[in-house]
């Protein structure tokens, strides 16, 4: 039986079935959710809410490093490996005794007590497109090893799933993507970035432009210049009159649109939402600390969106700076350009969240689709390597100052506590207050679990 679980927001009882959730049942029928399912699920959720860290993350920030950064050059240095494997960077100590990372990340080394490293992530997909799909949905692509483009039957990306199962309770977007849509060459957008079988109503509000530019603005949260507030109110009144069509027998066709329109009009009328996308109020020293790069200013905007209570924010490093992480050639010369602003911006982001009291309620997930080969190739680069790689997790219920999992002497294979992308997905859903055992129906009416993995208890 397909089941959708009620969510635990703030101090609300985890088994409470709200009026809004009851109203959603009608529009949820297409996804296999009934009132009986909802009430039964509420009983299950009561027990889940007592589990460790369940629902602690009010917001999730997914920082996606498109291209796949090398584990041995960032998070998992191997100083004892042969020179052809260990590369040019030396390890440095961090604020956590016994943990070392690359010398190119000195600011993040100072912040190590605020995050946890996972050094044993593993899967088997060597290609960017299908591996990125896995990283951004928690599901293996049905055709691994391909640069497949987005399809209607795709499994939904994380933000779309959160938008469906744990939407915002305020007039803010449920899911925002900061940064450009990812492509492989001139192909259409890659799979794993949209709502897939949930439908376009659960796609992200996309903000592809550089928030550091003076001309920056976000379409969708600002009234067009030719639409005054009075006209907006008039349009809302017109909608109300249309909704009265329920009395004329049209309620089936209109069912479920009311909440969508409420959210749209709420966004356009919300000064809090508009201000969240405006960096003008931030101090110049803080903006400098984030770095004046596109990546840095995008992370600063992500912090503002966390303050606005947006459930899930994705930051795409894809053409954000001069280089991407796909370093098949000139690995070290490229990383020497990329890592300093990455280091400074991410370290500032973590410290800024923590100083403002936001880190404990904000899950930060920083990952790529895979890592890089242990051996340096003939072009002084590293190639794709999904067998073992690293990622950073912080806040939202994640333990601080830990290293989870272990790789072998060349950072090629896990030798302790291996973790799959679907385990990361299960952990993320758990911390967001969504039971990872939840099922949701695809377009064919088949119930699918939102995660195939298990919550990694050692990270909590």
List strands and helices in order, with pairings.
Blueprint: H1 19-28, H2 35-48, E1 59-65, H3 83-86, E2 91-93, E3 100-102, H4 106-110, E4 115-121, H5 128-137, H6 158-165, E5 175-178, E6 205-207, H7 229-243, H8 251-254, H9 257-269, H10 271-276, H11 284-289, H12 294-307, E7 312-317, H13 331-355, E8 362-367, E9 371-372, E10 384-385, E11 389-394, E12 402-404, E13 406-407, E14 414-416, H14 421-432, E15 439-441, E16 447-449
Parallel strand pairs: 1-7, 1-8, 4-12, 5-6, 5-7
Antiparallel strand pairs: 2-3, 4-11, 8-11, 9-10, 13-14, 15-16
Describe this structure as you would to a colleague.
With 460 residues, this protein is α/β, with parallel strands linked by helices. It folds into two domains: 56-217 and 282-432, Alkaline Phosphatase, subunit A (3-Layer(aba) Sandwich); 222-269. It is 32% helix and 14% strand. The chain contains 14 helices and 16 strands. The chain has helices spanning 19-28, 35-48, 83-86, 106-110, 128-137, 158-165, 229-243, 251-254, 257-269, 271-276, 284-289, 294-307, 331-355, 421-432; strands at 59-65, 91-93, 100-102, 115-121, 175-178, 205-207, 312-317, 362-367, 371-372, 384-385, 389-394, 402-404, 406-407, 414-416, 439-441, 447-449. Strands 6-5-7-1-8-11-4-12 form an eight-stranded mixed beta sheet, with helices on both faces. A hairpin with a 6-residue loop joins strand 2 (91-93) and strand 3 (100-102). The protein starts with 18 loop residues before the first helix and ends in an 11-residue tail after the last strand. The model is unreliable at 1-44, 232-236 and 245-260 (pLDDT under 50).
